[in-house]
Amino acid sequence: xxxxxxxxxxxxxxxxxxxxxxxxxxxxxxxxxxxxxxxxxxxxxxxxxxxxx
Length: 53
Hints:
mainly alpha; 3 helices; 77% helix; 0% strand
């Protein structure tokens, strides 16, 4: 959590509610590594598609 917050340049206490809101919106469990990995891969694919434009 601390490393993620630092990379986003936000406080850890700001990150936690945002993650909760994202988890609710996407119906994900951030404690499930498989779900997090799927999301990360999908985001990376989307980033690569957008960089080709």
